[in-house]
């Protein structure tokens, strides 16, 4: 019976959620609710998680850890992610109190993965905050990273996350201030204070006021510190005891630092009305001794110093006792864990013994049957075993699912009476059939021509086996609730459908049918076909696991591109087929992003650039990450594409990647590259890669030299927002070319080249100057850009065009149309 404290209208999950929320404010009621569900088969682990949280609130850390970890195991098996995250967080908090910091970190990270799987941003932000607190003392830099990530997540949550967000602001400000970034740290603390005040997070608000008072005091602005503390004490009477105590404690420190020793002692008198912790008393003692001494009250100062000595001795003794107690708690927790594991193993052993005895009894009972029946059964079993052994051995072969099914069915058809067998391959809402076996020509015609036109993915013949792991056997098909008249008319009497596994996004189902004979599927039929289906499913899924393992070995984890191993394999295959080109790329600006904005930002830049390359690349173009900022493109063109066309294709992909990276907030992103062609330019595959690499570094050096030259020259002409020529105009900010025939977008390099040509329209502009305008152009890339510009210019106006002046450069010519009449 449930406790009376629980409203009768609440469902069991709602009652346990209520208990979880009451753990801090009303632990007795939370325990009563949890104990009512502790023995329930479905909600027992939820109740255990609540009891672990109550034990933590009551400072029973070892018990809290044991209960939370046991609950986490059960909840993981039940796939209850919300309660799994809760129990892991509570286990981490208990581990931290027990001094098991590594375990606490591991449990927090496990909870974080669960929260990410759930998509719960509020829970993610809370866990990131907890991890940051664990690193606060030992690794402030790492703590700062976690606080920054928590801030990003909680800002995305919105109003629900502002309570935790104010704490994150405050903690980040404290870290920055301690790291010497005092102005920035103060700004973050003030932001945390203001948000906590706005959201009525008074505990966080009071903590922020105390820290800012310390900042003002250290800067010599005691008046501001004193005023803020007095204002907080007077204006927020609803503050809890702990928050008010922190403000009074800060006031004692501020008055002492200001040399107002009498005021510090008076503030202490008000502070002592609260129950001070031993650490707080230890911190206040020296202030009291020093204040009395500065006021000339030497007797009181001496007496207090004696008390301080005695207090420190007592505190040291208690710390040692506490440490010994923690060690004992850890020992007890480990002992309890081992005993529980031993009991589980003993129970498992007992269960297996019972199963074994049961099997032995069954076999003994069967042994009492007639010798003839036993011999016949043994013969049939031997035949079935040999057949299934053959099926099992067959599954070791590296064959595709249709071939595996065809050979397996050929083995078992000596034991099973069926007229045909087909393999259904299901993908989304489509299904295709492949004949595996047919007894005669009539059955073959039925399964090839008639069956595919009738069955769909939603048909019970397929749907049940495609959605479950057990085979389906139907006898007397015409009497089924849902039938197909065409199949009944064709004489279908019985069928069996066997799940055959999923591979490469295809689900396979093996269908067998009986025509014109209403015979039930025997136990042997079910056993043989069930074992065959299971063996086929295991083989197909094992092939799928092997395929995924091979793919993982050839995939870069960060970007999802192929890795160096995949690149080398693809190059070898391409060399055996046809002519190809290799483009070696360097993502410029990555090191700067890593150095100035952190490796998380650098990883994001890589991911944006890589995903855009992959999306922009044509089917004949492979994209690979070889390591760091080094990326390779493999372009298979069979020799029919000119080097200029290949280079233009590569440029188009690179431009898309750079544009996406800059649009994602990385303006420093750029790309250097080099292209080489095999076998035209190299004798071996290694030589063509080395040649592309050499051209890459030549391009990088050329770009660097041009950037230095551009920085050293002062452009005398001011940059215009719109450049006009004839009936066309170039919008520099939007990088849009407009004319009477329409408008078209330009990329960054095309815009720069056209601007340079328009600045000296009707004149020849040297190639060197245009290459500088392009920023990263070299060799034949300028010709590719000009060719693209010609097409785009012709699409917006007929009164302008770009001419090539051989050996010199290019010129932009335009004219205005004559007016009529």
Automatic annotation (TrEMBL):
It comes from the Bacteria. Residues 720-814 form the OmpR/PhoB-type domain. GO terms for molecular function: diguanylate cyclase activity; DNA binding. Residues 720-814 bind DNA. The keyword DNA-binding applies. Keywords: Coiled coil, DNA-binding, Transcription, Transcription regulation. GO terms for biological process: cell adhesion involved in single-species biofilm formation; negative regulation of bacterial-type flagellum-dependent cell motility; phosphorelay signal transduction system; regulation of DNA-templated transcription. Residues 317-362 form a coiled coil. GO terms for cellular component: plasma membrane. Residues 578-713 form the GGDEF domain. Pfam families: GGDEF, Trans_reg_C. PANTHER family: DIGUANYLATE CYCLASE DGCM-RELATED, REGULATORY COMPONENTS OF SENSORY TRANSDUCTION SYSTEM. NCBIfam families: GGDEF. This is Diguanylate cyclase.
């Amino acid at each position: 019976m449930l406790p009376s404290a629980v409203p009768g209208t609440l469902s069991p999950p709602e009652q346990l959620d209520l208990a979880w929320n009451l753990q801090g404010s009303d632990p007795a009621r939370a325990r009563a609710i949890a104990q009512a569900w502790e023995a329930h088969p479905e909600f027992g682990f939820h109740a255990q998680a609540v009891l672990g949280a109550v034990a933590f609130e009551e400072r029973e850390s070892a018990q809290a850890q044991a209960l939370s970890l046991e609950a986490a195991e059960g909840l993981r098996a039940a796939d209850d992610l919300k309660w799994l995250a809760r129990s892991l967080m509570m286990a981490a908090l208990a581990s931290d109190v027990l001094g098991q910091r590594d375990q606490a970190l591991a449990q927090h990270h496990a909870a974080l993965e669960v929260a990410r799987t759930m998509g719960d941003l509020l829970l993610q932000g809370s866990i990131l905050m907890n991890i940051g607190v664990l690193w606060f003392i030992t690794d402030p830099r790492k703590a700062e990273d976690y606080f920054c990530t928590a801030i990003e997540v909680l800002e995305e949550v919105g109003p629900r996350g502002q309570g935790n967000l104010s704490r994150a602001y405050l903690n980040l400000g404290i870290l920055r201030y301690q790291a010497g970034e005092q102005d920035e740290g103060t700004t973050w603390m003030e932001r945390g204070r203001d948000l906590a005040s706005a959201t009525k997070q008074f505990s966080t608000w009071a903590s922020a006021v105390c820290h800012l008072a310390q900042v003002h005091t250290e800067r010599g602005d005691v008046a501001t510190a004193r005023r803020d503390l007095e204002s907080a004490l007077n204006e927020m009477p609803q503050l809890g005891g702990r928050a008010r105590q922190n403000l009074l404690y800060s006031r004692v420190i501020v008055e002492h630092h200001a040399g107002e020793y009498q005021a510090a002692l008076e503030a202490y008198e008000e502070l002592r009305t609260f129950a001070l912790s031993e650490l707080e008393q230890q911190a206040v003692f020296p202030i009291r001794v020093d204040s009395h001494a500065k006021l000339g009250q030497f007797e009181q100062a001496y007496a207090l110093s004696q008390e301080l000595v005695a207090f420190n001795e007592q505190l040291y003794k208690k710390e040692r006792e506490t440490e010994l107690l923690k060690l004992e708690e850890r020992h007890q927790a480990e002992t309890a864990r081992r005993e529980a594991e031993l009991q589980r193993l003993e129970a498992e052993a007992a269960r297996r013994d019972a199963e074994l005895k049961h099997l032995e009894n069954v076999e003994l009972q069967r042994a009492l049957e007639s010798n003839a029946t036993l011999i016949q059964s043994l013969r049939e079993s031997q035949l079935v075993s040999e057949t299934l052994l053959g099926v099992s051995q067959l599954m070791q072969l590296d064959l595709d699912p249709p071939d595996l099914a065809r050979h397996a069915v050929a083995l078992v058809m000596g034991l099973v009476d069926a007229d045909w067998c087909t393999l259904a391959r299901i993908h989304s809402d489509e299904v295709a059939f492949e004949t595996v076996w047919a007894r005669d020509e009539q059955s073959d015609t039925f399964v090839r021509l008639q069956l595919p036109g009738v069955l769909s993915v939603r048909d019970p013949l397929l749907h049940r086996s495609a959605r479950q792991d057990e085979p389906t056997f139907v006898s007397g098909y015409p009497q089924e609730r849902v039938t197909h008249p065409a199949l009944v008319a064709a004489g279908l009497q019985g069928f069996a459908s066997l799940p055959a596994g999923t591979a490469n996004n295809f689900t396979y189902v093996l269908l067998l049918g009986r025509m014109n004979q209403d015979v039930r599927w025997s136990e042997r039929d079910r056993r043989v076909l069930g074992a065959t289906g299971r063996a086929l499913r295991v083989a197909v899924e094992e092939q799928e696991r092997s395929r995924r393992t091979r793919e993982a070995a050839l995939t870069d984890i960060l970007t999802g591109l192929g890795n160096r191993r995949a690149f080398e394999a693809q190059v070898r295959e391409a060399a055996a087929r046809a002519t190809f080109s290799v483009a070696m790329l360097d993502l410029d600006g990555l090191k700067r992003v890593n150095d100035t904005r952190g490796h998380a930002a650098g990883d994001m830049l890589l991911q944006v650039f890589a995903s855009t390359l992959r999306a922009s690349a044509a089917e004949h173009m492979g994209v690979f990450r070889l390591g760091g900022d080094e990326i390779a493109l493999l372009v298979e063109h069979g020799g029919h594409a000119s080097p200029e066309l290949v280079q233009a294709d590569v440029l188009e992909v690179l431009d898309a990647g750079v544009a996406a990276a800059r649009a994602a907030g990385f303006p420093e992103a750029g790309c250097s590259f080099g292209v080489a062609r095999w076998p035209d330019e190299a004798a071996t595959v290694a030589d063509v890669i080395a040649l592309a690499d050499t051209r890459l570094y030549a391009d990088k050096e050329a770009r660097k030299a041009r950037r230095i030259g551009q920085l050293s020259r002062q452009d005398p002409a001011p940059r215009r927002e719109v450049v006009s020529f004839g009936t066309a105009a170039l919008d520099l900010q939007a990088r849009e070319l407009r004319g009477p025939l329409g408008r078209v977008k330009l990329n960054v390099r095309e815009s720069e080249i056209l601007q340079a040509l328009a600045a000296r329209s009707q004149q020849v502009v040297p190639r060197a100057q245009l290459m500088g305008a392009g920023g990263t152009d070299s060799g034949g890339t300028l010709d590719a850009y000009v060719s693209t510009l010609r097409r785009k210019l012709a699409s917006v106006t007929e009164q302008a065009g770009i001419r090539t002046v051989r050996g010199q450069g290019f010129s932009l010519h335009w004219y205005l149309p004559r007016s009529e009449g």
